[in-house]
Amino acid sequence: MASEEVKVVTFWASPYGLRAEFALSAKGVPYERLLEVDHWYNKSKILVESNPVYKQIPVLLHNGKPLPESLLIIEYVDDVWPSPHGKHLLPPDPYDRAMARFWSDFAEKKLNSALKSILLTKGDTQKAAVEEALSCISTLEGVLEKASSSKDAPFFGGDHLGMIDCVLGPFSLWFPAYEIIGDFKFDLEENYPHMHTWYQALRTSSVAACMPDSDKLLEFVLGLRKMLCPE
Ligand SMILES: N[C@@H](CCC(=O)N[C@@H](CS)C(=O)NCC(=O)O)C(=O)O
Q1: What's the CATH number where 191 sits?
Q2: Cβ atoms of residues 47 and 60 within 8 Å
Q3: Which residues form the GST N-terminal domain (predicted)?
């Protein structure tokens, strides 16, 4: 499409913002990042104006039209742009599409709530959150085992990135920080081999270019933990 203007209002470390970037990158759509400096306490004018209801990142600006909410952005990107390899982020079959939305929602609600609890709590509550997160990973391992037939098709979408990968992928970038904060190991290679292959494939896929530097991200999340849950 000629003279397209695609921008994402985001914060560099945000898993939600990265979902939008993953979707755009997977589809090969060039975009510009409008980086928030402090989207919690000092929101930019563009963020407040483009998402007046929630005032949260990310917001996709497509030719000036704002669209908030990461899951909606993924679906919109899939509807608007063709992909380089001809495959969509959501599968064509209606049942498969519904199930892709179901597992994206699972990652968004169940896994996310456990991960947030690891970040924000201590003691027995945190231990329970770790167990819950591992149980979610175990469930996703089963989904992936069915979906990914081989090392050449390591994603939830098979051989190409799909909606679930765009939703879950950014959370996985925070895993090393959760392991330190919650004093545990996901140990994907040993315990969840399909998730391990998925994680490795994700990090070398077309969306790797928009991932933040791992050390910088780790430092950021550990700092966030200190701020939100001081010793
Ligand atoms: N449901 C939203 C959640 C987005 C979200 O939680 N954004 C956070 C990023 S850390 C945010 O902007 N927080 C600032 C605030 O809530 O004021 C989505 O999926 O896009």
Answers
A1: 1.20.1050.10
A2: no
A3: 4-85
Atom of ligand 1 nearest to the CA of 43: 17
Partners of 66 in the β-ladder? 61
36 vs 105: CA distance, rounded Å: 26
- Ligand 1 in contact with 21 (CB < 6 A)? no
What domain range is 104 assigned to? Answer: 94-228
> Above 90 in pLDDT, residue 3?
no
Q: In angstroms, what is the span from residue 55 Cα to ligand 1's centroid? A: 8
Task: Tell whether ligand 1 has an atom less than 6 A from the beta carbon of residue 75.
Answer: no
Task: Calculate what percentage of the chain has a pLDDT beyond 90.
Answer: 89
Instruction: Mark whether 130 and 199 lie in a shared domain.
Output: yes
Does 16 contact ligand 1 (Cβ within 6 A)?
yes
Any atom of ligand 1 within 6 Å of the Cβ of 112: no
CA distance 11 to 5: 19
1: in domain = no
